[in-house]
Structure formats: structure tokens, C-alpha cells
Amino acid sequence: MTGQLTPPAARTHLGLEMTAAATANSLQLQCCEHCATVQYPPREVCRNCLSDQLSWRTVEPAGTVLASSTLHHALEPWFSERTPWLMGSVKLDCGPVVLVHLASDVANAGSPVRVFSIKDVSGQAVLVGTSQSLALDQAAVLAHQLISSEPKEMT
Amino acid sequence: MCQPVWAQAQTGHRESARPVNRKPQSYRGVALIAPYTVPYSRVSERGAAWFIGRTLAGMLAQCGLEKSAVDGLAVSSFTLPPDSVITLTEHFGLQPRWLEQVPLGGASGVVAMQRAARAVQAGDVEVVACIGGDTAGTGGFTDLVSNFSNFTVDAAYPYGAAGPNAAFSLITRYYMDNYGATREDFGQIAVAQRYNANHNADALFYKKKLDMESYLAGPPIAGDVHLFDCVMPCAGADGFIVTTVERAQQLQVPWVEILSCAEQHNAFPDDPVQFRGGWNYFREDLYDAAGLGPADMHFLQTYDDYPVICMLQMEGLGFCVQGEAPAFVRETPLTFDGRGLPHNTSGGQLSVGQAGSAGGYLGLVEGLRQLTDCAGQHQVASARVGLVSGYGMVNYDRGLCASAAILRRGGL
After folding, report:
1. Measuring CA to CA, how many Å separate B408 from each of A147, B297, B334?
2. Predicted model pTM
3. B231-249 b/e with 16+ CB inside 10 Å = b?
């Protein structure tokens, strides 16, 4: 039973596009071909100029933690088996604020982070923030570990 | 008479660069009557239409109107679909000439009131029933939260599936980091509201006391948000009727008049985390139109999905300056009988319960009760004028809607 659980897999067609665009060790977000505004969450039209010419592109993954939260209660069993779970919000240097799964050493506001778009256990892309002080390949490994952790021991 | 601590607070300058060239007209001639609540319950087998329909019946009985007199209907409900305001006309046997459905969550009550008031003033309609109501089945809350909006589905729910608790824990953390608020400060709001609810037999927590020690001992839910910072999802409904002063006088019922009201949505989209809202845009116009300031208010009803949001409203509406709500709530009694600033005098959602869209009407309906002397055991002595504020709809990382109204006892 436990083995069949996954994080939420439901996405809109734009969320599915994000999964299709996700590339190893980097961050892909929608960019406006008309005004270059980086978009998030995924949109049908540009939040700045309303153009519909939005393309998934690799963007600068650096950002700063705005706030983090340790979740003790979840509405989905996959997360309930893994609480406490750390997530947070990050202001990306390229513009948007993104909600991310967060590494514990960058929980404080102001922490510099690198954000990856990678596939979680459900097969859908999610964003993960890790310390900028890690080498790229180490950071990518940690990001995968964070979102594919084993459930805690149930007592 | 001694000025309350917060009376010196300035209404402040407009924080929006947007010029407002046209002043709204007054709401003269409009009457708000028949505040009514269908008592809340933790879960219900009934549909949303039951809660809305029984609210309509209760309001009509209260003011002596026939159902056939209702020529306008405004509703807000998350659990009504696939039904809607139009299908309710057939369900309830109404023949209205004016319909509105306001999907603005916690801002819905004031917004429905404002739209109905303008239609009544213009003569398009004479008697509008405004109702927010929802049912609550087991598991329904997860369905609502997980599919709340497209942004939620793609960019919020996958990050821990904690629903609104996650977004508000981030807003709470940011506020604590920037303004030095502590959990005790949030506790001042929650504990005072519980005291108010202990005087309101309709509150789900009517018989459960809450002191600061118990508040602080509440188990953590998400970050700094602990159990007693969260509302209890439940079933219920609140409503009121918007009509003319003439009709209210004919019915010989007490009425409330609108001195001013406003709504503002998606304010400050470039703030990285929400620490203010639409109230900061319209505050000055709101008080100017009423000819009053925050110090003149005999009560404040805020939208209290979490205590930090009450603080944003106290600041945004000029009861204290930005960032000083923690000191304000420490220094100002918030209970209905504390002679400070009576706040969420029914107990608010934190202690009455959050019946979905009814949460966006609860503060307004309570304000109408206070101004018509029918708040029973939690009546604020000599309440003649008060402010009701709304907030709602977390699409991604912040609430998008803000609304507020200054109301006065009619016939003064």
C-alpha cells in the first residue's frame, strides 16, 4: 500500500509542460518572447504584456529564501508519512517568487539558494532549493534525495 | 473621555501610485437588515442549498418579508457547484430580476453588500438577499484545497499538500522576522476571540475556554502556525438583506446604513511576501467618505483565517502603523467588553468556525447584529458605528482580495 503512494501528481496542462521541459541539473521556467518576463506559476499569457508567446527556457537558478516552514500536517498520505517536511518561498534573481521543497541548511530567510526543476516520485516536476555553496553535481544529488526520501518509521 | 491608545494612529498616506479621480457617490437611502446565521456544525450530510435556503427563510421570518418580495439574490459558496445562483432560483421558487454570485472568499460579504446596495440605489431591484453558505462533508476540505485554482494545482499543493496552512505559515514567518511579532502576540488575538465566543452560543467553541498558556501549548501545524491559529472548517451560513430605508421603516425593523465601502484586489503584486493588502490602497478614501477615522470605530470585524491577517488589517486600516500591530494587540483590549477595540466580537472564524464562504459574511453579519442591538451576550455597549473588513482567495502565495465597509446604526 505504502509503495503505491506518491506526492500529488495532478497538474494542469501547463504543469505538464513544466515536467516535459525539466532538464537535469537546471531550472526551466516560461519566458515571454515579447518582453522577456520570466513567469511562475505557469501561465497562458504573460503577466506583464499579455503576450501568449511563452517558451520554456533554462533560467538563472539563483535566488534568496524569503521564508520557510516546517509542515507537521499534510492532506496527502505521502507527505503525512514524511512530516516534518520543510518547504519555503524563494525570490529568484530572474524575477518570480517560487514555492520549493527546501534543504534544511538554507531554512533561514536570506539564505542564498540554487533552485532545480526535477521530477519527484509522482513523475511530475517540482522545484527544490539547495545551498549555493554546494557544487552543482552535489546539489543535484541532494535535491533528488530530498524529494524521494523514505517514509519515517511508523510506531 | 480618555482616548484609547490607538486613537492617535494616523490614517496615513495612500500607498498606491494610482490616482483616484472619481469619488464614489454616497450610499444614502440603502438599508441593511435581517442579519441571520444558520448555526454551524462540524460536518453535515446536507447540501449547500439547504444552508443557503434556510438562511433565506430565517431572514424573511426575522424581518416579516414574504418570499415573493425578494427580487434580488447574491450568493457565495464553494460547495454549491454544479448548482449556482440561477439554479437556486428554481430550487427556492424565486422570481428575481437581479442576481449576483461573488466568488471572493473572505471578501465576499462586503462585496455582495456593495453591489446589491448600488443596484438598490439605482432602482434596479428593491430587496436583495445576500447569503454566504457551505456544507462540509468528510474529505470535502481536501478536495476543495487540492483543486482550488490552477496556480494551486501546479505550484502550491505539490509542496507538502498542507493547504492554506503552508502559505499562511510563510506569511506569518516573514511578518515575525520583519516586525518582531511573537506567538504570544498572535495569541492575544486568539485568546480574546475565544472569550468573545464564550459569550456566543452559536460558536462551535462556545463552551471551550482558551487561555494564553493553552494557546502556546497548541501543537505545531505548519511552521509558526499552531493549532489555535487555525480555523475549524465546518458547515453553516450567514446572510443579510439589502433594501431601501423606506422599506426598512415600513417593516419596522432596525437597520444599518453604509457610510462607505471599498474593494481592491491583487494589491502590491511585487511585494515578495504579503505584508499588506488592498486596505492600504483605499484606507484614506474609505475614512474620507465616512467623515470618520479609526478612532471613531466602536468595533472592528476582521477576516481572521489566521491571526497574522488580522494584524495586516489593523495596520492597513490605520488602527496602528505598519509593523506595530504586535504592540497594538498587547496594549489594547480586544474583547467585546474590554473597552479597548472590540474585535471579532462573535469569536470570529477562529472560535465560531469557518463555514466556507460564510466566513466572508460572518464579520459583516456580526457587525449588523452589533449595530441593531441583537448581539445578545456579546453585545458591545452603545455600538453605533463600526468597521468590517474582508480578505480572501489564496491563489498561490497570498490572499488576493480585500474589502472593507464603515457601517452606522440607521436612523441616528
Report:
1. 54, 10, 20
2. 0.95
3. bbbbbbbbbbbbbbbebbe
Q: What is the pLDDT of residue B138?
A: 76
> Is B155:B396 a contact under the CB 8 Å cutoff?
yes
How far off is chain A from B175, nearest CA to CA, in Å?
10
Mean pLDDT value of segment B247-275: 97
Report residue B194 as a C-alpha cell: 475565544
Sign (positive or negative) of CA dihedral A112, A116, A117, A121: negative
> What pLDDT score was predicted for residue A154?
61
Give the HSE-up count for residue B404: Cα atoms under 13 Å, Cβ half-sphere: 30
B273–A67: do the CB atoms touch at under 8 Å?
yes
B33/B14 Cα distance (integer angstroms): 33
Contacts of B222 in chain A (CB under 8 A): 69-73
What's the start-to-end Cα distance of chain A, in Å? 17
Single out the residue of B44, B325, B377 nearest to residue B185, CA to CA: B325
Q: Is the pLDDT of residue B178 over 90?
A: yes
Chain center to CA of A18: 11
Residue B100 β-bridge partners? B74
B177 and chain A in contact, CB less than 8 A: yes
* Averaged confidence pLDDT in chain B: 94
Residue B191's φ and ψ, nearest 5 degrees, are -70, -40
Residues 92-151 of B with CB under 8 A from A: 141-142, 145-147, 150-151
Q: What does the DSSP assignment read for B40-53?
A: EES--SS-HHHHHH
**Residues paired with residue A116 on neighbouring β-strands, in sequence order:** A128
Q: Which residues of chain B have a CB within 8 Å of the CB of A85?
A: 160
Which of B142, B151, B153, B159 is the best mutation test for A, with the most CBs of A within 10 A? B159
Cis peptide before B82 (omega within 30 of 0): yes
* Structural domains of chain B sorted by starting position, each given as residue range(s) with its CATH number in brackets: 30-139+234-251 (3.40.47.10), 162-232+259-409 (3.40.47.10)
- For the record, the C-alpha cell of A22 comes out as 525539466
Q: Which DSSP category does B60 fall into? A: H
Distance of alpha carbon B193 from alpha carbon B304, whole angstroms: 10
Burial class (CB in 10 A: 0-12, 13-18, 19+), B103: middle
Query: Per-domain residue ranges for chain A?
Result: 11-146
Helices and strands (DSSP H and E) totals, chain B: 14, 11
CA–CA separation, B195 and B211 (whole Å): 9
B399/B395 Cα distance (integer angstroms): 7
Residue where the block lists cell 468595533: B299
A11 grid coordinates: 497538474
N residues, chain B: 412
Does any CB of chain A come closer than 8 Å to the CB of residue B170?
yes
Residue B257 sits at φ, ψ, to 5 deg, of -110, 155
Count other C-beta atoms under 10 Å from residue B143's C-beta. 13
CB-nearest partner of B162 from A12, A41, A75: A75
Cβ(B323)–Cβ(B281) under 8 Å?
A: no
- Chain B residues touching A91 at Cβ < 8 A: 272
Instruction: Please state the rounded mean pLDDT for residues B69-87.
Output: 97
